[in-house]
Amino acid sequence: MSGSTDAAKGPPAGDHLEIKDSRTGKVYYAPITDETIRTADLKQIKVKPEDFGIMGYDPAFMNTASCRSAITFIDGDQGILRYRGYPIEQLAEKASFLEVAWLLRHGELPTQKEYDKWVADITYHTYVHENIKQFLTGFRYDAHPMSMLAAGVSALSSFYPTAKSIHDPVERDIAFVRLLAKMPTIAAFAYRHVKGLPLVYPDNSLPYAENFLSMIARMSESKYEANPVFARAIDVLFILHADHEQNCSTNAVRAVGSSHVDPYSAVSAGINALYGPLHGGANEAVLRMLEEIGHPNNIPAFIESVKSGKGEHKLMGFGHRVYKSYDPRAKIVKGLCDQVLAITGMSKDMEIAVELERIALSDEYFIKRKLYPNVDFYTGLIYRALHFPTDYFTVLFAIARTAGWMSQWEELLLDKEQKIARPRQIYTGYGERPYKSTLDYTHRITK
Ligand code: SDX
User: Fold this and answer.
1) Which ranges constitute the DSSP H helices of 345-371?
2) Distance between CA 401 and CA 396 in Å, rounded?
3) CA distances from 304 to 44, 298, 299, 363, 373 (A)
4) Would you say 152 and 136 are in contact if contact means Cβ atoms under 8 Å apart?
5) Nearest C-alpha to atom 37 of ligand 1 is from which residue?
6) SS3 of 278, please?
7) What's the pLDDT at 18?
8) Is 129 helix (H, G, I), strand (E, B) or coil?
9) Is the Cβ–Cβ distance between 237 and 397 less than 8 Å?
10) Candidates 62, 75, 279: which one to mutate for ligand 1, based on the most atoms within 8 Å of Cβ?
């Protein structure tokens, strides 16, 4: 940025903004790169030399790029989603979740040798320390599984203290493996604990999704046989949920990771961010919304309550900060839904969901606001058909997003431009005022 009233100096070469400060008449030039200007460059725009300088103000980062990333590309208007350039539709149709997890981190699809070792390493690390089991079974019988998952993952940092050596690629490699391997185990332990069922240990003769379903559902049988349609549905749902550029939970992982804490602590922050009903908790909220509607005949009244704008109802599973057209993942999930329900039987909730979507997509309120189904709208219907409890849906989202969180965390660490995340503020509080206490510290609390 060059700040000058001397027009003779002229603007910088290349694309730039010309900014005139009406307070001083000074003209500044801001180079445009990648359709952005560096907000830090604005700091030189001052009235007096002692001023802090102009800042950008962007609550919820509606129009702020926080990083450069090569992992996921989204075009919200076109409904495009690509992981490292590969269209999500092709990955969902042909790839496995662990192959996609490798792709997200390394930027290229694995060779057969790389893939076989990656799967073997992850399979080898599916067990957790027995103390984790004791820790998890200490939760109340009705604990929300997301609380158990966040706590369990955070506790891993105490079992693997060398993970603090975040600049050691060997430590990062094993942290990737351990988290991808142990998330399903911790998640399944949480499920079984809340159900009051004995915990089922990993069966390392099974592939990833089947092993997870075995830890969830195995009872007295010596070996769990997952329905192949259900196992593939889980693997595809993991692919669809694996990453999504700078969403709320990834932003949390990057912000916490920027303090150079270990990856288990950073991912635990992401789990807690995902828990929120506006983010990953939406798939749980969709099912509760469908239950509340109860019958297709009640849809028009519900839609009216959403449109009334009193805020007590949102159409959960609809709308997106980036997608202003149909979320490409929602289309794939809807197709998966049909496959699973063809086996489990059509559900009342699915009938309501299909009718709700039909009505909403033809309603001016939603059209005007470009509100379309997002990934969460149909996902919960599959999880419900597979008999997962409603409050467990976001746990399934978190297992998958671990691949993205870890890949984004490492990209942050390796990005020379990144430092500890520490935004500024616009101060709106009091000016200086003298402290005068009116309290009587000898006062005792009386019944
Ligand atoms: C995920 O970021 C990601 O990538 C997230 C995610 C990922 O993979 O990580 O894709 C996963 O979190 C999907 C989103 C799941 N959340 C929901 O389904 C919850 C319901 N959706 C909304 O809360 C909302 O659409 C958000 C939070 C998803 C996006 O909100 P924005 O971008 O902040 O939009 P907004 O709240 O400013 O809404 C713009 C307008 C408002 O109306 P007006 O004030 O202009 O009159 O649209 C309305 C909103 O009231 N609106 C909705 C609505 N979503 C937005 N009205 C009714 N129902 C909705 N769902």
Assistant:
1) 348-361, 364-368
2) 9
3) 50, 10, 9, 10, 18
4) yes
5) 321
6) coil
7) 93
8) coil
9) no
10) 279
Spacing, Cα 130 to ligand 1 middle (Å): 41
Q: Is 279 a catalytic residue?
A: yes
Give the separation between CA 63 and CA 57, rounded to whole angstroms.
Answer: 10
Distance CA 53, CA 43 (A): 4
**Pair 268, 153: CB distance under 8 Å:** yes
348: tokens are: 């009342």
User: Which amino acid, 177?
Assistant: V
Encoded amino acid at 325, one letter: S
Mean pLDDT along residues 163-174: 98
116 assigned to active site? no
Place of tokens 């919200």: 76
Q: What is the pLDDT at residue 375?
A: 87
Q: How far apart are CA 88 and CA 236, in angstroms?
A: 10
Q: Please state the pTM of the whole predicted model.
A: 0.93
Q: Is 4 helix (H, G, I), strand (E, B) or coil?
A: strand
pLDDT for residue 6 is more than 60:
no
Quote the tokens at residue 134. Answer: 């004791």
Residue 314 CA: nearest ligand 1 atom is 58
Query: Which domains are assigned to the chain?
Result: 7-57 (no CATH), 83-417 (1.10.580.10)
Query: How far, in Å, from the CA of 80 to the mean position of ligand 1?
Result: 18
User: β-strands 16-20, 2-4: how paired?
Assistant: unpaired
Q: How confident is the model at residue 284 (pLDDT cuts 50, 70, 90)?
A: confident
- Tokens at residue 152, please? 């369990």
pLDDT of residue 310: 65
**Residues 30/1, Cβ–Cβ less than 8 Å:** yes
- Output the six-digit token pair for 51: 């001023």
